[in-house]
Design brief:
Blueprint (H helix, E strand, L loop, with lengths): L9 H20 L1 H6 L5 E2 L2 E5 L3 E7 L9 E5 L2 E8 L16 E8 L10 E5 L2 E7 L17
Parallel strand pairs: 1-6
Antiparallel strand pairs: 2-3, 3-8, 4-5, 5-6, 7-8
Length: 149
């Protein structure tokens, strides 16, 4: 039997707990606001990782036209908005698990970035957003020298 060791990241779990608490408070204390809104927006699932040079965010967006995706980076706040097409009408679904309708996701990026050089690519229903880090935060290598005799 194979055993795996996984490095524990307390911040990953803290973010999950924070998100769960946000949802709990929204569902418990703000039901009137949800009833007033005619359309609900769903939370776009995504992956994000950081390399020494850039921040990369990847989101599945099957069926969404790339020109209908709105990406804004204002200060340290990144927002992705769009809409997945509605399901077929006049059919009786036996199983319907894919979400549809408007989506939005907002992230706080607490790393200085160069927003002017950000790139968004859309291929096969996958949006990949690449945001270069600002020069000030990129790792620098310093060469050690010794004096010549």
């Amino acid at each position: 039997m194979a055993k795996f060791v996984t490095r524990w990241d307390p911040f990953r779990e803290a973010v999950t707990l924070r998100e769960a608490m946000d949802r709990l408070f929204e569902d418990s204390f703000v039901p009137a606001r949800r009833q007033v809104a005619q359309e609900r927006t769903f939370r776009l699932p995504l992956d994000a990782y950081v390399s020494p040079e850039e921040i990369v965010i990847v989101a599945n967006m099957p069926g969404v036209k790339p020109e209908e995706v709105e990406i804004t980076l204002e200060g340290d706040t990144l927002t992705l908005k769009g809409e997945r097409p509605a399901p077929l009408e006049n059919v009786d679904y036996v199983l319907q698990e894919r979400t549809c309708g408007k989506f939005q996701r907002t992230l706080n990026i607490n790393i200085p970035v160069d927003a002017d050089k950000a790139e968004a690519k859309y291929e096969n229903g996958l949006l990949t957003l690449t945001i270069p880090k600002a020069e000030a935060v990129k790792p620098k290598t310093i060469q050690v020298t010794t004096p010549k005799p």
